[in-house]
Amino acid sequence: MNNGTKNIPKTQRIYRRTVSKVFRDILLETFPRLDEREHYWPLLSYLLFPTQVKDGKILLARDTMAELFGYSSIPSYFNSGRMFRGFAEAIQEFTWSDFSKVESRARVVESLIWPREINKALELERKKLFREEGRVYLISGYPFSKKKQNEFMKQEKFEASALTTNNKETQLLLTYMNSIPNNLYAYLIKRNGRRTLNAILNLDSDIGHQWSILSSIVDDYNQLYKPSQKTVRIFPFGERIVSLKSEIRRALTHGLIEADLKSSQFAIAATLWDIPSVKQFLSKGGSMWEYLYQLGSADKDKLKKVLYSLMFGMHYRGIMAQLDAIGVRYEDFISLPLIHDLLRARNREMNRIKQNKGATTCFGHFLSIEDYDVKSILAQCCQAMELKLLLPVVRLAIENRDRKHGFTIALWQHDGFTLHTKSSQQRKYWIEYISNTVLITAKANGIITQLCWKEI
Questions:
Q1: How many CB atoms lie within 10 A of CB 97?
Q2: pLDDT in tens, 151-170
Q3: pTM, whole model, 2 decimals?
Q4: Distance (Å, rounded) from C-alpha 411 to C-alpha 348?
């Protein structure tokens, strides 16, 4: 359903979304004008099953909207507002916010109230996720085809395999992760799908968003990644398992094991920015998160967000807003001795980057302030060290991929990964071997961290 001169990208997963035929029929009965306005199907699908959500609101990014309407790039004449108004008048009323480049504020859905029959149908549809009988493609209405699904995923994997980056270390990671056979993920869905669905339906909030991601994964269970121009990190290529909330992701990967670097960015900054108090704290086994719990909040995820925002240059007003959301005073936060020392070291490092007109990463790449802002360079140098610490794990996985007793990195999560082995005996061996390898690498680079493991 192409609305312009560009072909629909083969990786545009929204065209592969399946629903029960009953659900699609209800949509046509409720919105009869869809028959004459077929080009609104992609937007309807996106609003019904949102996968891009921020602070509980559906994102309406211009490039995403253009892609929904069949453009592989945004044409100069593309007008999101006009498209939204047409949809609201012809199909379903909703309101949306303005966007601001200056304030980095994305356009989001402000209000959207579905008719009662649609809400009821959505509730039933969520419970039918793993019923394959009578499923159709939401946008075309054609019956679901296992053969077509495999063709879609094969083409998508081929496209992901062609992604490249100028950083050879990132390329090594990217190539490996995009080469993992998807039968591992099919197995996880078959074994843990119901467990995951129940976990989502029992959430206090965000049910629709998490269900939408899971259903997208069920329709297309490739786990693929893409590089970024602004970091050595790799990111999910569309909606993937790593896009799920941690507790939902762990329900789906039950039976595997997770590893992550203890206080990774904090430990890396302590060395790269030379913060004696932090290095001493970490060398004695201190936990940054337990240290921050004295502020009165035990929400690790939100405290981590605040800490990293402070580390990498967010304006103090943004930090205050994040702290207010968890009931912590800004003054109490920055008066903590380790935070005070961290903030001073960060400012010193930012000034050094300005004076040197850039900085060189641990991989020997010079990042110029002509190409990146200072905050980006600050973060990129730490992220490069993070990858350097874990790269030996990737090399081990590659060396042992075809061996009977090897292991697979099932998911990559920047400062950690999810591991799959064929037996508990192999798991025990690899946990010890990998832990020692990473610890040796960390010590060689002066970073006080180690891998922490968690059975899922």
A1: 13
A2: 989 998 998 889 999 899 99
A3: 0.89
A4: 36
How far is residue 374 from each of residues 46, 188, 377, 379, measured CA to CA in Å? 36, 42, 5, 9
Q: 19 φ, ψ to 5°?
A: -140, 170
Instruction: Write the pLDDT tens digit of every residue in 209-264.
Output: 999 999 999 999 999 999 998 899 999 988 899 999 999 999 999 999 999 999 99
Query: Partners of 259 in the beta sheet?
Result: 417, 453
Helix axes 264-272, 300-311, angle to 10 degrees: 20
- Measured CA to CA, the distance from residue 337 to residue 139 in angstroms comes to 56
- Inter-CA distances, 268 with 16, 265, 417, Å: 41, 5, 18
What's the rounded Cα separation, in Å, for the pair 179 and 20? 32
Task: Using the structure block, give the residue that is written with the tokens 């060395």.
Answer: 271
**Cα–Cα–Cα angle for 417, 418, 420, rounded to 5 degrees:** 135
Place of tokens 């920015």: 273
Contact by Cβ (8 Å): 205, 179: no
Euclidean distance between CA atoms 183 and 178, whole angstroms: 13
CA–CA separation, 211 vs 206, rounded Å?
Answer: 8
3-class DSSP state of 419: strand
**Cβ atoms 328, 295 nearer than 8 A:** yes
CB 178 within 8 A of CB 163: yes
Q: What share of the chain is helix, strand, coil (3-state, %, to 5)?
A: 55, 10, 35
In contact, 232 and 221? CB cutoff 8 Å:
no
Q: Which residue has the tokens 């337990």?
A: 290
